[in-house]
Batch of 3 targets.
Target 1
Amino acid sequence: MSIYVGVGGWVFDEWRDNFYPKGLSQKRELEYASRRLTAIEINGTYYGSQKPESFARWHDETPEDFVFTLKGPRFATNRRVLAEAGESIARFVESGITRLKDKLGPVNWQFMATKKFDAADFEAFLALLPKSADKIALRHAVEVRHESFACEAFVTLCRKHGVAIVAGCDSAFPCIADVSADFVYVRAMGTVEKEKTGYSKAAIARWAKRAKTWEAGGAPDDLALLAKAAPKKKRDVFLFVISGAKARNPAAAEAIIAAL
C-alpha cells in the first residue's frame, strides 16, 4: 500500500457512539480505529512530549501495515527565529518516536498562520531536520498557513531539502499542492455536518482521484501549482481528514478508502 488515509488523533468524545461502537472502552479505541483506517496523525506530540513506552504501545496495538504520522512540537515552530530550533527538534527526535519502528511515517511541522516566509531563516530550519534516527529514515513535511508562502521560491526551497509541503485544502489557509518530496502529505479540512460522510459523494470521489494521481507521480488537474510540476515518479500519499466537522471525519476517511 502506498496511499494511507486517516484522521488526526483517535480520542474524541464526538466519535463515541458515532464512529466507535457503543460501549467500546477508551483503551480499545486505537485498536478499533486502526482497523478501519490506514493511518493516524498523532497531534499530542505538537503540545508536549510523549513517553517512549507510549510509542511502543501504539506500535503494538495496530496492524502490521498501519502508519502513524507525527506533529512536530510547537516549541520548534512557534518561534521568531527558526534557526534556533535545533535543541527542540533534537529533543523531539530523541523522545522515543523511533519506538514506532516501521510504522513511523512523516513528521508534520506545523506553523502558525502569523508566521511569514523568510527564505533564509526557513532554510536554516529545514537544514536542522535530521534524515534519520536510530537507523530509521525520517521524512519531514511543513504545514505553512500564511499567504506569503504561496510562491515558487518556497516550493524550490522545500525541493532542495526534500521536505514535503502539506497541502492543507478546503480551508481558509492557502492550499499549496506542489509536490516537493518523495511523498505527498494532505490535510483535507472541509467536512460539513450535513453530509453523513463529511464530504459529498462527488468530493469523496475527487479526493480518491487526487490521491491516485499523486501516487502515480502526477499532479491533480484541479489544483493549481506555484512552480513547474515535479518529475513523475511513484510516491507514497498520506491523506488526513481533519478539522471541519470533526464528528464526520472518520466517516469521510472511510469513504475515501472505499473509493480507492
Target 2
Amino acid sequence: MRRRIMLPVLTVAALLVSMFLAAPAQAHGYISSPPSRQAMCAQGRVANCGDIVYEPQSVEAPKGSMQCNGGGSRFSVLNDNSRAWPATSVGQSVTFNWVITARHATSTWEYFVGGSRIASFNDGGAQPGATKSHNVSLGGRTGRLTVLARWNVADTNNAFYACVDLQVGSGGGGTNPPPPPPPTNCGTAWSASAVYNGGAIVSYNGRRWQAQWWTQGETPGTTGEWGVWRDQGACS
C-alpha cells in the first residue's frame, strides 16, 4: 500500500516542478529618460492617468502594435494625444534609458516615428540588466514628435511599449518646456505609512532613493537590486 500511495504523490510533485520551471518569467520595464508617457503619469507630471500611475512598467501587449498602450484594453490613456503630454527638448541623437524591473530574454528593441521604424537593436535572446540604453538618431526630423518604443520578448508572444514625446530643435513655442533638473538634496524622509508613486524621492540613512513604481511600507535598501527603491547616492 505504501508504494502505491507514494508513486502518485511523486508523479504529481514532479509534474508541478516541471510546470514551474517551464513557465516563463514575467518581464516588466519602461523608458524613464527621456520620460515616457507612463513615466510622466507616475511622476505626477500628467494628472488623472488611472492605474498606470502605479505600474508604469506594465504596458504589455502582443507584439506588432503601433499604439502607445500596445493596443490592449488597459492604459488607453497613453493613446490620448489630446492630453498635454510634456515634450522633452532634444537634439538629433537621443539616448533612451529603460528601467527593467523584471529581466527577460529579449529578441529586439524597436523605435518608430509616425509608423516608420528608425532604429532596431537585436539582443539575440540575451537577458537585459537592471537598465538598458539605446542611442537613436532621429534622421533629421524636427519639431514635436512622438517616438514609439517596443521591447520584444524572446520567449513569449508579447512586447512592452512606451511612447516618448520629444521637441527636436526650436519651435516649441514654450508650451512644453524640458523637465526640471533633478533635486540636489534628498527630499523628505522616508515614512513607512506614506504612499509613494514611481519617481518619488526620499531620504533614508543619509542616502537618496527613488521609487521605480508605487510602493508603501517597503524600506529603502532592503528591496534588492531589482526592487522598488533605486539608490541614488549619498545626500548632498
Target 3
Amino acid sequence: MASRSLPGISSPDFARALAQLRAVTLRPEIRLTEVPAPQRIAPYAVALTADVVQGAGDEDDLASGRFVLLHDPSAPEPWDGQWRAVTFARAELEPELAGDPMLGAVGWSWLVDALDGLGVSYTAEGGTVTRVVSESFGVLEDREPSVEMEVRASWTPTGTDMGEHLQAWSELLCTIAGLPPMPEGVIALPGQRR
C-alpha cells in the first residue's frame, strides 16, 4: 500500500489499518493500484485507485475511482473522529439516464447501501453526485451522447476494521459499473493487485 506518515512519527493504529486494507479480498473485476497519498491533510494517509473491468484481459474500464484513508490522532472537529475515508467513483451510464431527476439520489443511495449492507460503522458522511452529459457537434456529431456519474464522498469510520470501508467502497464501484451483486454465500476470488 502507498502510505505516508510524518517522519519520525509512528502509529500502531495506522499500521493496523494498513494491515486490514491489505487483507481485503475484492471481486476479480477490480484492479487495485497503490498511488502516492495526499500530503498535508493528515499525519497518516494511504491512497488506492481502482478500475473495474468486465473480466480477465479486458482493458476497457467500466468504472474507476480512488479511496483515501486519512488518520489524525488529534481528531479534527469536522471529521468527528480520528479517521476519514475520502472517495471518488466514476462510471459511464446509459444516455437515457441523463434526464433522470432521481439519478443523484440513486447514486448516493448506492453508497449508503454499500456501507449499511456490510454493517460498516460510520458517521459524518457527506458528498456529491454529479452527472456529466457530453454531446458532440461539427465533425464529431456522429458520436452518441454520453453520460457519466461521479460520486464523491467522505465519511468517518467509527469501527475498528478499516478494511470494511474499502470493501464497501468497492461495492459502490461495482454497482455504478453495472455489475450484478455477488450472490449470498459466494466468495470472490482475489483480484489482481499491482
